[in-house]
Specification:
Length: 408
């Protein structure tokens, strides 16, 4: 989902979780959204106005009365694409449910037709109180999106339900709210399916300091994991990259080709779909030194030497052991003879689909946010996807997987 240019009002109320709204604000701004923060009087007791003013796209608003415009609530409410309240206290839920608009945030909530995402956070006793639950029910019945609190440690050392939802889940709910107004809510066509995706380039150690790796950023694999999760799949992402995980995805971090194989193989039989987007190293050093090697240990004069051995191509094993009905997808990053090489790999590794890209072309593949691919399927159908963002490529890949499953 592209948040660039979307106008988001971020309401912050007076709970200890107000500090986590800073992270929500930062993520939205990083994604290109225009964030207008509103703080209640209570929120100001927990976090500084300056923090939000510095991070957001415009200075924080705190009052119905101190802006140049006499009606800030209608400016904010009418101009928003979406309003999110994080954290939302029991007081805010009550005021919003009853229309008691005595401060800028509640007045803005009443003055908008935009979707509203409310993220409550409070102590378990308050969360479970019938008045709070009744207010939530009222808001829900009016179409307000509620992101429920999580279980965990609360202020004062208590443990229970009431923690503000994870910032990643809050941003995902905002994205879904925006997709629903754009009419682009993704199909939930992968509900109940187990999907495993690998991402990133493996790192093969030479010694404790040096590695051999490649230029894969993992972005395409992450986009495929995010798309599969948004369409309802249970997604496991086996990754070499320390990147923020898509919401709801189980992440297994690995380093080398051998680690990735050890993580993937035991899970493989239970998967409905496996997408091997990772750039697995084809070679690794024969010996991994347990101490940092000195320069001259690579060869005292002339070229340095590192003896390499092939890694195991476990995509071949996945192809050999593929259970009936499973869809197995490989990637082929090529610089020449893209289609010929891709078709060769598809046949050799017993794949259902291969995503081939010409990494020599501008804006394509490694380290870019865009990609251009040919989807080569075992049925002989090739589908060109012209240069676009990696999430759109992911959508095409998942669409192709859905068609292959339907034809199985
Ligand atoms: N792959 C794998 N294990 C390896 C190497 C590759 O599982 N040791 C997978 C990759 O994840 C990718 C596919 O195989 O999905 C193709 O990888 P690639 O390196 O392009 O293919 P190779 O068969 O190694 O061919 P090349 O000679 O082009 O390197």
């Amino acid at each position: 989902m592209n948040l660039a240019g979307r106008r988001i009002v971020l309401g912050v109320t007076g709970g200890i979780a107000a500090y986590k709204a800073i992270e929500v604000c930062r993520r939205l701004v990083d994604a290109g959204a225009h964030v207008s923060p509103i703080m209640t009087e209570g929120a100001k007791r927990f976090v500084g106005e300056t923090t939000f003013s510095a991070l957001a796209s415009e200075p924080v608003q705190t009052s119905l009365w101190d802006e140049e415009s006499p009606i800030p609530h209608t400016r904010l409410g009418q101009g928003a694409d979406v309003i999110v309240v994080a954290p939302a206290t029991a007081r805010l839920l009550s005021a919003y449910a009853s229309g008691y608009s005595d401060d800028l945030l509640t007045a803005t909530l009443i003055a908008t037709r935009a979707p509203v995402v409310v993220c409550p956070a409070m102590h378990t006793e308050m969360w479970e109180h019938p008045s709070v639950q009744a207010n939530l029910e009222t808001l829900r019945s009016r179409g307000v999106i509620i992101v429920p609190p999580a279980e965990g440690r609360l202020a004062g050392g208590d443990v229970g339900t009431g923690r503000l939802a994870d910032p990643g889940d809050i941003v995902a709910a905002i994205e879904r709210a925006l997709l629903s107004i754009d009419g682009e809510l993704p199909d939930r066509d992968l509900v109940g399916l187990d999907v495993l995706v690998t991402a990133g380039g493996t790192r093969e150690a030479i010694d404790p300091v040096r590695v051999i790796t490649n230029r894969s950023s993992g972005k395409q694999g992450y986009a495929i994991a995010a798309e599969a999760a948004a369409r309802g799949a249970n997604v496991t992402l086996v990754t070499t990259v320390d990147r923020e995980a898509p919401s709801g995805v189980t992440v297994i971090e690995v380093v080398s080709a051998a680690d990735m194989e050890a993580a993937v193989m035991p899970l493989s039989a239970a998967q409905d779909v496996i997408v091997m987007a990772a750039a697995v190293a084809d070679f690794r050093p024969v010996v991994v030194a347990d101490r940092k090697l000195k320069k001259d240990e690579f060869g005292s004069d002339g070229p340095a030497r590192i003896l390499l051995e092939p890694t195991h191509d476990f995509l071949v094993d996945l192809g050999t052991r593929k259970p009936a009905g499973q869809v197995l997808v490989g990637f082929a990053a090529e610089t020449d003879n893209v289609l010929g090489n891709a078709r060769g790999k598809l046949a050799r590794k017993n794949l259902d689909l291969i995503v081939a890209n010409d990494v020599g072309a501008p804006g394509v593949g490694f380290e870019h946010d865009t990609n251009e691919v040919v989807l080569v399927s075992a049925t002989g159908m090739d589908h060109n996807v012209p240069l676009t963002d990696k999430r759109s490529i992911a959508r095409h890949v998942i669409d192709a997987i859905v068609s292959i499953r339907a034809a199985h």
